[in-house]
Known about the structure:
Oligomer: single chain
Structural class: alpha+beta
Order of helices and strands: EHEEEEEHHHHEE
Shape: elongated
Distance between the termini: 39 Å
Strand content: 15-25%
Largest sheet: 5 strands, antiparallel
Low-confidence stretches: none
Strand order of the largest sheet: 5-4-3-2-6
Amino acid sequence: MSRMIIDGDLLTDALVYDFGDNEHFLDNNTGKVLFLTEEALFTDDGELDPEEVDLESEQYTWIDPRPSNESWKVMADFTENHTDGEVFEDLARALRGGKPFRSFKDALLRYPDVRENWFAYEEAEMIEYARKWLAAEGIDADIEYRGKIIKGLPPIPYEPTGDDEEE
């Protein structure tokens, strides 16, 4: 049996970006990423009837976006490990100031080569984050990202804790 393949662009977007009140779910049977708004439910194939889809069933896994402090750490790691001199100082200052995400992106505009390196770094990090998320959710799947198949990690076995037992 072949492994399920998930659209990496859709999965990484759902995991890495906060879409406000809208939510994403992964269909564990098909590998499709579903996008739920207040008005409708969508997949890359089109609109679904939300009344016909039980998002609380085991068929679907809610995709919890990465916390912003983890995204900030990715920018800080890039700054610390992939820049130096004036670029390092400029990016580090952007991360320390107000609106660090906007400031970081604005600072990168001053250094086109570093900006391209950032995009490559961020892309690789997003894929790795998606691989780890799938494994932690116990989902055995590979990721198709920009025409390449990226092997998923083995699912992490679920081990119940004392908190999981019913009284």
